[in-house]
Write a structure and sequence with these properties.
GO molecular function: snoRNA binding
Family: Belongs to the NOP5/NOP56 family.
Structural class: mainly alpha
Subcellular location: Nucleus, Nucleolus
Number of helices: 21
Oligomer: single chain
Helix content: 55-70%
GO cellular component, one term: small-subunit processome
Number of domains: 3
CATH class of the largest domain: Alpha Beta
Largest sheet: 2 strands, parallel
Keywords: Nucleus, Ribosome biogenesis
CATH topology of the largest domain: Nucleotidyltransferase, domain 5
Radius of gyration: 43 Å
Strand order of the largest sheet: 1-2
Length: about 450
Amino acid sequence: VLNEKKLQEVDSLWKEFETPEKANKIVKLKHFEKFQDTTEALAASTALVEGKLSKNLKKILKKIVAKDAHEQLAVADAKLGGVIKDKLNLSCIHSPMVTELMRGIRSQIEGLITGLPSREMAAMCLGLAHSLSRYKLKFSPDKVDTMIIQAISLLDDLDKELNNYIMRCREWYGWHFPELGKIITDNLTYCKCVRKVGDRSNFASSDVSDILPEEIEADVKAAAEISMGTEVSEEDINNIIHLCDQVIEISEYRTQLYDYLKNRMMAIAPNLTVMVGELVGARLIAHAGSLLNLAKHPASTVQLLGAEKALFRALKTKRDTPKFGLIYHASLVGQSNPKNKGKISRMLAAKTALTIRYDALGEDTNAEMGAENRLKVETRLRLLEERGIRRISGTGKALAKADKYQNKSEVKIFDPSGDSTLPAVSKKRKIQEVEEQNAEVPVKAKKFKAEMK
């Protein structure tokens, strides 16, 4: 079409396809393949969608290559063009101009193809649309985000259930052996110990060295002999042991699920994982809905994801807005001072937004960008904390330096004059002096008046 100069203005291509008559002057469509019914046509179109070339199409393309080796073939799908170029060594072109041309052909396709009933054309379009959407859903890279979202949601649910089960187990067995809960603080070790021993009277004869260290084992056995707990039946112990089995089984599955989530996050979003960790990264993806949706958010939104309720409440009451949301649980924010948490979370959100876009839209799958940005945030955090230390020392350029100690020996003599609490002059004498002074004052005034007269 372009070589024969049928299109005068490529920018206003839609004007050439306003009517079927105008479209027929530019493009002539030929039946490349003859099909018996719509099903065969649908199978051929689906093969094209999946990047497969049928035999008749290969023959036509070979004729084009034989006719002119420098001919360019316009294709609507870049992937299909890549397949044609690899298999037949025919140069293909895919650009916005080609997309507009294909759109014009589709709009007037019933007028360009003769002898094709409109009913079959509608069925053909519907079947092609279904097969295309099914293929895109089948091979969509965004669908892998669903695995992360489900895994992190299940992990949070497992943590809640584990906490409830362990609390119930400690309270239940605490009636029988309350001292064990204070000696063994680790929940999983507590459940393993209860499951292995059962009744507290069995602790003296049981060997739990594979679960507990020697010192704690000795404390447990000593506490079991003088325990203040109540006696329980064997049926109660069996129920408690069954609950311990559930806790241990769920804990093992949680560990397995966490490993799966870590591997999946490193495969899909390696830079995000390096920046904030797999748990925080997975929660951000789950909160946004997908990695692509998260990539569309600006850095300020990434910083406040998870704190929407506090944000809108602060805006409504005209108070200070929150400084962080889910990103607060990142290790970089956690290791900073309370004074610097806002600055670090803002900078971390900015760098995290860049890494998210790189993971969602970039072609590379390495984590170099995430490691580089994390190093920048760590350097900034170190500078902020060192500046605080310098400010305390009183100088902005160097850290505080201790002065050299010099021993100065001074002999001080005790002054005994401060020991006496008695006044130097008696009170009576003071009163007499005051009365005499008062008596003298009016006499002087009279003499002064007499002189004036």
